[in-house]
Design a protein that fits this description.
The complex is a heterodimer of chains A (129) and B (179). Chain A is built from 8 helices and no strands. Chain A is an all-alpha fold and 129 residues long. Chain A has a single domain, classed as Cytochrome Bc1 Complex, Chain D, domain 2. In chain A, α2 packs across α6 and α6 crosses α7. With 179 residues, chain B is an alpha+beta fold. Helices cover 23% and strands 18% of the residues of chain B. In chain B, β3 and β4 form a beta hairpin. The chains are: A mainly alpha (129), B alpha+beta (179). The interface between A and B is medium-sized, with 22 and 24 residues.
């Protein structure tokens, strides 16, 4: 009985944090329309699953916050930072380290990339010395 | 055989002695009419409100062929329910576009905002029936992924727009526009 009460108490404590996380909601409303629910994109839209190809590459972190879909999303810097942390973890299997912050996202999104597709190839094929 | 006959004869004579034929007729008629009018009672109508839709969303089913239907709050196009499909399925001969624009609508039955995906059906000429243009929460073209004036059939095999669906994705954390 005590254990049950403890578990219920913990569950109640966990509820407010769950209610405050907007990542999935923001993903569905701002990304999934084109990148689709599972992130695989389509003939005309890049796949988010392919983000794994850029994992750990120099420049990838900034690039993900600068692509038009991210930089121009109608979200605050803090909400976009939270969404990016969630998104990178989901599609590359690794949480960004350190996590994106609102200030960093604000700085990055103010300088969007002009040619996202070319920039992506450059980051992917760069030889790391 | 004769025992069965006798038993039936006894039963029918007994009931004939006890019941008048008119009383039986009136009762039988009462059951018939009463059964038919039961759904008209307020009790039955109140139960309707708690019915679950085909996608598990609570509420009156409403008429998906009408523009006023709650899911259509942000739609711009012909309703697939009037074009041989439904509000969740494309008419035969068309393909649902994989890319789509997404908005939120409030369900009056439970007061909850739901995320609605307005997938277009593509591959046949435009349906032309039940035009609906409500656009609540729509953004201008420079937010193209929140705009419904562009042809979302761009992701399908054929770019010919036929009609639009309104599929519930899940409950929204907040209504549009975001804070």
């Amino acid at each position: 009985m005590k254990g049950l009460l403890l578990a219920m108490g913990l569950l109640l404590l966990a509820l407010p944090t769950r209610a405050d996380s907007y990542e999935e909601h923001d993903y569905i409303l701002n990304c999934s329309g084109c990148h689709r629910m599972d992130g695989r994109g389509s003939r005309t839209v890049p796949s988010l699953i392919a983000m794994a190809e850029l994992r750990g590459k120099p420049g990838a972190r900034a690039y993900w916050a600068q692509v038009p879909g991210a930089a121009q999303a109608p979200l605050t810097d803090v909400r976009l930072a939270a969404l990016l942390n969630w998104l990178v973890k989901r599609f590359t299997g690794q949480s960004p380290n350190p996590a994106y912050t609102g200030e960093e996202v604000k700085r990055l999104r103010s300088t969007p990339v002009r040619d996202p597709a070319a920039e992506r190839i450059k980051i992917r094929d760069a030889i790391v010395r | 055989m004769s025992r069965l006959d006798r038993w039936f004869e006894g039963m029918s004579r007994q009931s004939a002695r006890r019941l008048s034929r008119r009383s039986w007729l009136s009762r039988f008629g009462g059951v018939l009419v009463g059964g038919a009018t039961l759904p008209l009672l307020p009790v039955a109508r109140a139960a309707e409100k708690h019915r679950l839709g085909e996608d598990g969303v609570k509420g009156l089913k409403g008429d998906p062929r009408r523009c006023e239907y709650w899911r259509h709050c942000a739609i711009d196009g012909f309703l697939c329910s009037c074009c041989g499909g439904s509000h969740t399925a494309c008419p035969p001969g068309t393909e649902m576009s994989p890319v789509t624009w997404i908005g939120t609508c409030r369900n009056p039955a439970d007061g909850i905002d739901y995320i609605i995906s307005y997938n277009d059906c593509c591959g046949k000429t435009f349906c032309g029936r039940c035009m609906c243009n409500r656009n609540e929460g729509e953004r201008p073209l420079y937010h193209w992924y929140r705009n419904n004036d562009i042809n979302w059939c761009g992701g399908a095999k054929s770019q010919t727009y036929s009609c639009s669906t309104a599929v519930v994705v899940k409950a929204a954390k907040e209504a549009q526009p975001e804070k």
